[in-house]
Peptidase S1 domain-containing protein
Amino acid sequence: MNNFVFLFVIALCGTRVSSLNVERTNRIAGGESAKPGEFPYVISLQEISQLSTYTRGHRCGGAMVTARHAVTSASCVHDRTENGQFVVINATAYRVFAGSFNLSVDSADRNRNIEKITVHPDYRPNTPYVNDIAVITLVGEFPNSVVGTIPLAVSEPTQDQGSICQAAGWGSQNGTSSASTQLMHRNKTVFDQAVCKGVYSTPVPGFTQINVENSMMCALNPLSPSCEGDLGNPLVCNWYLTGILVHHRNDCSLGVGSFPEVYTRISSFRSWIERTSGASTFQPGMAVLGLICIVQIVTAKVLQ
Ligand SMILES: *[C@@H]1O[C@H](CO)[C@@H](O)[C@H](O)[C@H]1NC(C)=O
Ligand SMILES: *[C@@H]1O[C@H](CO)[C@@H](O)[C@H](O)[C@H]1NC(C)=O
Ligand SMILES: *[C@@H]1O[C@H](CO)[C@@H](O)[C@H](O)[C@H]1NC(C)=O
Ligand SMILES: *[C@@H]1O[C@H](CO)[C@@H](O)[C@H](O)[C@H]1NC(C)=O
């Protein structure tokens, strides 16, 4: 009896762990355009009134972290009004598209309207790139047969330097368009944090200086820089969501870049994302379940 209760509790405790793993199939190294099912967690944040255009109202990238929550940058969900004020975009005027490698191949399973947008409470639009992260809650879940999720990185800030990661999204391929109609992916190498901080604290004519904080990270592919429409794109290292693109400074029309790109470091915001979306095994609900597990085990022992 005791063993039975214990096994039941273990089974109950384990259910949530397996459900959030990303699809690891269909992965093709080397290519630039994504294959069907290759990046099932990548989203396109789209303005509904622009869906009839060639680029389908694409505004920014992002990543699904649960079947109902996407992570993107806070700057992606802000508009600047005529008098210079920043306002959060009207959630009902936008939607999230995912689960396709062709922006034009849409279906009921591939788009969801937005219930609410939660911007990080410490994001200040006038201090860009700091706490530059937002969670988009959809009105309903995507089916997991069409759209996948990506687990959040846990690693310490210094562990990933030099790693080769993948960035995928719908940004323009050449700077002449505002988006690409094909989902593209590129390798990016994680850039030394101190060197990146130095690069962005050096005055460059025409560019504002950035204080690269530890809650940001940098990555670069000199032959494949990010372009218009790439903001919010996920940087995935070792199958974990590790960064969200918040700034790029290269001239992508030339297809070369020497400035490292700046990403929000996901591990710094992991607990906030978890609290906002439930994207974790360590959520409040699990803590309660864990407590019930312990109570049940103790009770079972007492009753023995
Ligand atoms: C991306 O990096 C992987 C190693 O992590 C490598 O096998 C692959 O060839 C690279 N792709 C490109 C397009 O450079
Ligand atoms: C938000 O957008 C919807 C649909 O486009 C519109 O009906 C509504 O008035 C907008 N709300 C605000 C506050 O602008
Ligand atoms: C994307 O889909 C559209 C509409 O079905 C099609 O015309 C276009 O050729 C597709 N593009 C690619 C790259 O598959
Ligand atoms: C730029 O990219 C767009 C969209 O992918 C494509 O239609 C266009 O031909 C490209 N232009 C050049 C000059 O390569």
Observations:
- DSSP finds four helices and 14 strands in the chain.
- Confidence is low (pLDDT under 50) at residues 1-31, 281-294.
- The helical segments are 2-19, 193-201, 266-277, 284-303.
